[in-house]
């Protein structure tokens, strides 16, 4: 079972939820979609570079 990770009165889970809610209110739901696409593009690029490096060996 998960142990309670606290510092003060708020758990890590509560702090994460609070931060996510604030971000959603500030930037909107589309923000998460755009950062997800950016992350996916970066992963795709890194995979491509890794494959190219392996082919050169």
TrEMBL record:
Chain positions covered by the region annotation Disordered = 1-26
For this entry, the protein name equals Small hydrophilic plant seed protein
Species in which this protein is naturally found: Methanocella conradii (strain DSM 24694 / JCM 17849 / CGMCC 1.5162 / HZ254)
| Ranges of Basic and acidic residues composition bias in the record | 1-17
């Amino acid at each position: 079972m998960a142990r309670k990770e606290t510092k003060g009165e708020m758990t890590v889970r509560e702090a994460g939820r609070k931060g996510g809610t604030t971000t959603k209110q500030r930037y909107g739901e589309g923000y998460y979609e755009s950062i997800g696409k950016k992350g996916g593009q970066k992963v795709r690029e890194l995979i491509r570079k890794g494959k190219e490096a392996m082919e050169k060996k």
